[in-house]
Structures are given as C-alpha cells and as structure tokens.
Amino acid sequence: MKKTYLYWLLLPGLLFLSVFMIIPIVLTIGSTFFQAERFTLSGYVDYFKDPYFLKILLTTLEVSVAATLLSILLGLPVAYYISQKAPRRKGVLLALAIFPLLTSPVVRSFSWMIILGRKGLINNLLVDIGLIDKPLTILYTPVAMMIGMLHLFLPMMIISLVGVLENIDGDLMTAAQSLGASRAKAFFKIVFPLAMPGLIIGGILVFVGSLTAYTTPALLGGKQRVISTFLYQNAMTLNDWYSASIIATIMIVITFVVVGLMNKWANKLNPKG
Amino acid sequence: MRNKQWGLGLFSLLVYLFLLGPLLIISITSFEPGTVLKFPPDGFSLHWYRHIFEVQMFPKTFTTSIIISLLGNILSLLLGIPAAYALNRFSFKGKDLLNAAFLSPVLIPGIVLGFTMLKYLLVTYHLPLYAGLLVGHTVIMLPFIIRVVGSSLSSFDFAIEEAALSLGAGPLKTFFKVVLPNIRSGIIAAVLIAFLESFNNVDISLFMTGPGVSTLPIQMLTYVENYFDPTIAAISVLLMVLTGILMFGIEKLMGLSYFTKR
C-alpha cells in the first residue's frame, strides 16, 4: 500500500497531541525562564533556597522511596507465589490484585481515612484492647500518605513482577536445588536476577506514581504538603501561576530523569531487550 | 515442596488483606444508619444510598463523567485507531519516536498536564470549560486506545488484508470489512480501559471544573472536605460494582493478561 496513507493516518492524532498537550507544556516550561520579559534563572534559585519548598520536596521523596521499597518487599513474594500457581488459581489471584487498581483512587484513599482516623478502626481497636489511652495521630501524617500510596501502587508492582516471573523456567529452581542450593539461595541466585527487569519497571511505576499522585496526599496528608498538592495550591488557591509553572517543570524533570535512569539500568541488565 | 509453601501463602494472604480489606471495610460502613461513618456500623440501613440520589450534585456529576468519558472515547478512537494501524502496519523511519510520542501523555505527571491545560486551553485558547474537560480526557485516553488496539493489530495477520486488496476491494472497504471486524474485541476492551481511566481521573478534571461543571470524583473530593457521613462509602460501593462489571468485560474480551504485559 502507498506510504502516503501513513502520514494521513498519523497526522490527526499528532496534531491533537501537539496542540493540546505538547505546546502547552513547552510554553509552560519556557515561561519559567522569563520574568518581566527578561531571561532569568532566579525563579529556580529562589525555590531551591526556600527551606519550606525543600521540606516539601524531601517529604515527597521520602514517601515515594518508602512506598517503592515496601512495594518490592511485599510485592516480590506475592508475585512469586502467584506465578507458581496453576492457571485457574493464578487468574483469580491476578483478578483480585487488578480490581483495586481499577477502583477509583478517591474510593481507595477514602477507605484509609476510615481506618486511620482519630476515631478510625485502628485507634478504636487499640483503645478497646487497652494498649493506648488516647487515639494516635496517624491520619494527616507522612506515614498515612505512604500507606495510601503503597495501597495505590502495590498492585502495579505485583502485576509487573508476575509478568516477568511467569516466563522464568521453573526447572531452573529445581535444577539449582537438586545441585544442593537451599530454596532461599536458589531464589536469590536464580529467580531474583531474572526478575530484575520487572522489579525496575514496577519500581518506576510505584516511584513516579507516588511522586506525582494528588488524590492520596490531598485526602490523607491534611496540612502535610507534597509536590503535587503544592503545585495545585499555588495554581488554584494562591493564583501564583509563575510558581506553579516552576513546580510543574521541576516535576517533569524529576520524572524524566528517574524514568530515563531506571530504563537505562534495565536495559543494561537485559541486553536482549 | 508443598509444606514449604505455607509461609509464602500466609504472607500473600496478609498482603491481599491489606489490598482488599479497606475496600471491604468501606463497603460495610456504607450501611451505617447514623450520620457518622464508623466501623463496625451500628445497624443496617440503605439510607445513605437513597441520599446519593437526593443530593442532586451526585447524579448530575455522574452524568457529566459518563458523557465526558463516552465522547472522549469516541474522539480518541477516531484519532487513535488510524495511528495504531499505521504504527503496526508499516515499518518506517522514526516509528519508535512516534510511538513514544503517542504514549507520552502517560509519562507526564497528571497534575502537570492539568495545570498546563488550564493555563493554555482555558485561558489562552478560550475553550469553554466543558470542551476543555473533554479535550483533557481525550489526551489521557489516547495512549490506552493506541496501546490496546495496537496489541490486537500486532496479532492480526495482515496477509488477509493483502488478499482482500488483491481481490479488488478498496483500502477503506478492506479496513472496514476485514481489519476492523478482526480487532473488534480489542477495540471494545480498549474502550473499557480508557473509560475507567477517564471516569476515575482526578488530576486533569481538578483544573477543568468550575461553577456548574464538575465530574463525580471531583464532587466526591469536595464532599469529603465538608462532610464525613456514609454517603461517599455508599457511592464507593456503587462505583466498585461498576468497576467489577467493566473488569469482567475486559477479562472476557482480551483476558487480564493485558495488565501483566508492559
């Protein structure tokens, strides 16, 4: 078939994305380098000197790193367990992991408000069994945000690991064990390195997802700000679009650097692609 | 071998409890008869389910969400199917780059997309709120359409298409009579996945809503800021039922293995 078709088929979509996404983003990034029509980097300098902003950035990174590490810790064994199951069982377990993923983040974050609140499930339980006298403050802390993020993105870690673990030949484990390796040793010497690409992809999804999520910190963080709620506050509450544009640019840069580095790492580990 | 698995099984059970427990708890609290959300509830009542329909804003924003998702789906199918076809049918220079460009809306943080769209679509291009909302949702649906339709095109045997063409059917006729019917289930699955993506979206809608125009998730967020009664729990249950139905559809059409492939 004639190749000219090709361009006509791609053009509408590309035009749409350019006009409504790429141009707005490029203009937003561009606008951060100009104040009073003159080129300047002072916007960025001010931000990286501001302790309030640095604290927000640090909280965001802490919450995201913690959620990512915990998702690996919880996700890897579960994914391994799922990948060992017969197809029918596997299907059910996968469906149970995918269901929360498809459920609205508002619903999922709200459910943690019921559990972690001052009169929430955990506090009531702890008071009833006499472990504490006064309810603990769990909601509206970084810990609450981290739990919410973990709940939000753990399914992504599990399903990307299942995808990789499924393709690992089970005979490899049997072979290693018959040659005298313990179960744990066989797992860490054989399954773990082969699962690494899935771990990195899962890690990217959890880390970048936590870094940029809005709903969970908005509901579970209270006055605790993370970078996405700070962007929203600057844009909509303070109407400071210059600041919001700087924060947006910083978020794009962090996301691209993280994704780029992790992808590079994944490719290095997996030269066949 | 089997008895060594029990530790792993127990661990997995606890993780599943962590994932599904909160959804179960929110479901149970939705039947609370009183005005304060608590677990366990004081009794059984469907009062708050009735309340959803009495508070006008919920049915209204639900309708907006549905309309935006449906129109956005139509738009993104019109833009996405030709692109997915071109990307899978032909090999050409710069294909990987174009592929990446079409999937890029997933890479940009949603909150950033929302803000830049507010700044340029609404303020600079003067799009009405409703149109801005529709355009924003179409942008985020497009990558899902291209990926899912693309994956069903990549398993389609283009030799059948060549056969139709060589027998004298025009390219358009061939596409509608031969290609399209063969990837139909992929397209419907793509629509369901994109629908959920749009319907649950907060990040873009947050900036594209205002007086008179809002979507259900945004309305829910606003409500939670002011009230802590079981209304949101009741809506959550209805939304989970909807999610369950759509997920069942996706499973029937293309299998859930779509989610484990990246």
Automatic annotation (TrEMBL), chain A:
Protein name: Spermidine/putrescine ABC transporter permease
Upper lineage: Bacteria, Bacillati, Bacillota, Bacilli, Bacillales
Classification via CDD domains: TM_PBP2 (cd06261)
One Pfam family it belongs to: BPD_transp_1
PANTHER family in the cross-refs: INNER MEMBRANE ABC TRANSPORTER PERMEASE PROTEIN YDCU-RELATED (PTHR42929:SF1), INNER MEMBRANE ABC TRANSPORTER PERMEASE PROTEIN YDCU-RELATED-RELATED (PTHR42929)
Organism per entry: Paenibacillus yonginensis
Topology with respect to the bilayer: Multi-pass membrane protein
Highest rank taxon of the organism: Bacteria
Entry keyword Transmembrane: yes
InterPro entries: MetI-like (IPR000515), MetI-like_sf (IPR035906)
Family to which the UniProt record says this protein belongs: Belongs to the binding-protein-dependent transport system permease family. CysTW subfamily.
Keyword set, alphabetical order: Cell membrane, Membrane, Transmembrane, Transmembrane helix, Transport
SUPFAM superfamilies in the record: MetI-like (SSF161098)
Transmembrane parts of this sequence: 7-36, 56-80, 92-117, 137-165, 186-208, 241-262
Entry-linked PROSITE patterns: ABC_TM1
Domain ABC transmembrane type-1 intervals: 57-263
Stretches of the chain forming a coiled coil according to its record: none
Automatic annotation (TrEMBL), chain B:
Gene Ontology MF terms: ATP binding
Topological category with respect to the lipid bilayer: Multi-pass membrane protein
Domain called ABC transmembrane type-1: residue spans: 62-250
Entry's transmembrane regions: 62-85, 97-121, 127-146, 187-207, 227-250
Location(s) in or outside the cell: Cell inner membrane; Cell membrane
Residue ranges the record marks as coiled coil: none
Family matches, as SUPFAM superfamilies: MetI-like
Family statement: Belongs to the binding-protein-dependent transport system permease family.
Protein name: Spermidine/putrescine ABC transporter ATP-binding protein
